[in-house]
Amino acid sequence: MLTLAIDSSTDNLGLALMESGQLRGEFNLSLKRQHSEKLLPLMEEIFELLEIEAKDLDGAAVATGPGSFTGLRIGITTAKMLGRIFAIPVKGIPTLEIMAAGAAGAYRLALLDARRERVYYAFYQQPEADSDDFIKEIYPPAAVRIAELPELLNDYSQKQITIIGEKKLEVGKVLKASNFSIKYGEPESDLPRAAVLARLGENYLKRGQKDDIYQLKPAYLKKPQAEINWQQKYGSN
Asked: Residues 111, 113, 115, 116: is their CA dihedral positive or negative?
């Protein structure tokens, strides 16, 4: 099974090809706001380097956010296009799940910056050692104030929590002040890795868990700033 992973949800643009559990190739590039210009050329490059054609794909996985509004649209639209053209299944996976699945630790707190002292967060638990299940989602992705996290995670204050992602130092300071046991994940866990997305996507698709490409949408979790500004100026109606 040959699976293409596409992640344009953050400043990091990721592409990876996984074939039956073997990583064939991976790009993880910090490109800021260049995703619309770079995604298709990088796809062509990775196909050419690995001597693969798009028609050889058996499936596609794409990060669904939260993250950049424009970036999410670019990645998801591309994955849906591949699904339609080549009649392959597509699986959307939350960006925070990708990050957590690439980290270590029994309990994992994945974070992305939501600005103004807020973060997008999700909380996961590692499955039992003899289980082939995916990481267990304890709290699904949501946008919260950093100051609210000790209360939200209070039931796990005596567990060691591995913190990964943006704002991890600020969040760690707040949790330690509330007597949480924490550790910081490695730097490579602080952004979603395309190889991890490819692995998850392949595993989901093998289990028949695919998305309806006509219903697959980004998980923004908050309105675009332009829409917020419009409503503040003109009202919601």
From this structure: positive
